[in-house]
Fold this protein.
Amino acid sequence: MNGPLNISKNTDKAYQAKYDAAIQALTYIDNNMRVGLGTGSTANIFIDLLGDKVKTENLNIHCVATSDESAKRALAVGLSLLPDAYTDYLDIAIDGADEFDNQLRLIKGGGGALLREKIIAQATKNFIVIADDSKYVDTLGAFPLPVECVYYELKMIFKNLEVIFNRYADSSAPEFIPEFRKKRKNDINTDNNNVFLTNLGHSIIDLDLKTITDPENLAYDLQNIAGIVEHGLFLKEANIILTDNRVLNK
Ligand code: 5RP
């Protein structure tokens, strides 16, 4: 199974909505902040806008990026990056999402950066999600849930994942597919079989559960499988979502 693509349904309208959310996110940035930068098309817009803001207002801002791609982009627009492994806190982090619900629970990881994204989201005082409103859902799960695994004894990990899948999948979900996400057009890291590898060298399986009615217990069960490094359920991290010129708060 190929992983979900980051292609918007209505490009122009969706782009404008992402742009509006990113502009709104800029208003949360103050001088001397340490800022976490997300990954994906919405986060990219924010990175570009932040680069402009820092330049025009001559701000002292330092950033940490959630992917090599975002780091590259940040440097290209003149943002300063803190060295990996030496940052103990962030003032704010701005990132996109693949889905969100009205309790500010998210699915993330469509771009394969979920592990770094969750580390950053948990390290910051203020985790702000920017998203066009096509990402809003009543119930999480239509977007296949990315689960990041170590690249070792994959069949053993699949067996455990299948048990979890069968416990939580909606009756409308397809059967469990024991395959890792394949490399997509712009992905750089792969193994010899064209399996997508994250920046940290892990593989991802996308669980097409269709409807996740109990995300808290699903998250708990996934965390208990050896070999699973992280999953794309961000249930407590977001405190603000900026979407469709609205601010959703906890
Ligand atoms: C990457 C992510 C992204 O935030 C998510 O995929 C949304 O991307 P986009 O802004 O391109 O729709 O979680 O791992």
